[in-house]
Amino acid sequence: MAKPIMVQGTTSNAGKSVLCAALCRIFHQDGLRVAPFKSQNMALNSYITEEGLEMGRAQVTQAQAAGVKPSVRMNPILLKPTTDVGSQVIVNGVSRGNYPAKAYFRMKQSLIPDILAAYQSLSAENDVLVLEGAGSPAEINLKQNDIVNMGLAALVDAPVLLVADIDPGGVFASLYGTVALLEPEERARVKGLVINKFRGDVSILEPGLKMLEDLTGVPVVGVVPYLDLDLDDEDSLAQRFQKSGEGGPVDVAVIRLPRLSNFTDFNPLARMEEVSLRYVRSAAELGAPDLIILPGTKSTISDLRWLKQNGLAGAICRHAEAGGAVIGICGGYQMLGKKVADPAGAESGGAEEGLGLLDQETVFWGEKARTRVTGRVTGATGIFAALEGEPFRGYEIHMGRTSGQEQHFAQLDNESADGAVRGNIWGSYVHGIFDRGDFAAKLVNCLLAAKGLEPTARSGDWNAYQEAQLDRLADTVRRSLDMDLIYRLIGQEKPR
After folding, report:
1. Among 200, 241, 349, 436, which residue's Cβ finds the most Cβ atoms within 10 Å?
2. Is 24 a catalytic residue?
3. Is 330 a catalytic residue?
4. Do the strands 128-132 and 275-280 form a parallel or antiparallel pair, or are they unpaired?
């Protein structure tokens, strides 16, 4: 059975996901069979496996770092928030429905058999499992029946590395306070402290590191410098949301919906030098972009109402009426139609008039669509005419079924049609449609041509780019951490 090592954090966004990805890549580089594991993930950024099962995107990135295919066993429980006090609960890749927070808190102990079955199955196939916690283990109001932090560490007898983000300040208090709030048996599991995202001369930190070790009785195993990496992020705390969009001549505005999901769809566009991609939350921020993208959402109707309340709906319609380009992906595609109805309460219930930019209507019914797809554009019009015939691949995750009078945007290889198109407006259910380098380049060249500019965008290998980012991450973390100690924690000899 695999030896576990667990990364927990003093807060959300401390760097747990990225540090786990780094350890997965280091162990993989060193010839060990390794896989990631997070018993419970709360995120709207999800992924569909080859088997048609849904899992958290962070574990997909970690699987890539480990050199293995993503498996739903790596994330047996996924919580997708639908409101501020409730989530859709996905177990082993399949939805079990929407639950208020209190109801889920009462039921989560019943999910331990699912967690252990997934863990043991992975453990039997690997030398090392890299476990990721969630939030902080010192949330004393949530420690009862914990299944993702120290509760999981006890279940599988895992040593713990505790990581803290130095960037916002208070890193010593954060680490000391977290250790102090742990029970004695939990504190004994913490074998190392890690300070993350450090900028500056580490020698200035050293007196504080020694004091921290004396206060906690736990060694500091490393200080990881701040890295400007381009990896798929886990949640809405991602720094890319704060970026101003400085870059190339093509201005792309992605609407930052309250329940925005799968925003990693747009990472391939953001990295193109011709594109200036930004996330906007108000009509005042929108300006006059070359392209507006309505992204996926976990709550289509409530986010559609939000668009209307803050003036963005009107601004998007005026942009489209003036001949501007608009793309909708998944829930964003549904919003482009005339109406969205949820009679069975699959998400939030009720019905709402859409933006009316496409002659389509969506009704939520039946099972959630969860499938990987390939296809080809068959209905490119307007400034996007050059996309005609372009192949793509991706995956679908949605409850709604959309129908109407518009021409379909694409034909899938499973012989079904996808999306709809009218002039410079199109929508699709396919997440990841921009991941194929040729598709993204042709899309950007369409926008450049519409501005009277030379179509200079070139195809890129997104997978090779991500691999290089992971190697850079692993090299930095390897130099920053006491890898001799970490190898001792997993009972392995460090390769020389």
Report:
1. 436
2. no
3. yes
4. unpaired
Nearest CA-CA partner of 305 in 347, 358, 263 = 347
Contact 367, 383 (CB under 8 A): no
C-alpha distances out from residue 474 to 10, 88, 127, 412, Å: 22, 34, 19, 38
Residue found under tokens 């290998």: 461
What amino acid occupies position 147? Answer: I
**410 contacts 427 by C-beta, under 8 angstroms:** no
CA angle 18, 20, 23 (to 5 degrees): 110
Q: Which residues of 286-304 are buried (b: 16+ CB within 10 A; e: fewer)?
A: beebbbbbbbbbbbbbbbb
**Among residues 20, 408, 431, 446, which one is catalytic?**
431
Which tokens belong to 44? 């709207």
- The two structure tokens encoding residue 373: 């797809």
* Per annotation, catalytic residue among 330, 398, 408, 446: 330
> Which residues are 37's β-sheet partners?
131
Residues in the chain: 496
> From the centroid of its chain, how far is CA 455?
31
pTM: 0.89
Using one digit for the tens of pLDDT, what is the confidence trace for 302-347? 999 999 999 999 999 999 999 999 999 999 999 999 999 999 887 7
Q: Would you give the end-to-end CA distance of the chain in angstroms?
A: 24
Which residue's entry shows tokens 């010192």? Answer: 138
Sheet of 160-165: strand order equals 34-37, 128-132, 3-9, 160-165, 190-198, 220-225
Tokens of 175: 């680490």
C-alpha 193/C-alpha 481 separation (Å) is 10
The 10s digit of each residue's pLDDT in 451-460 is 999 999 988 7
What is the DSSP code string of 117-168? HHHHHHHTT-SEEEEE--S-TT-TTT-TT-SSSHHHHHHHT--EEEEEE-TT
Phi, psi of 403 (to 5 degrees): -145, 160
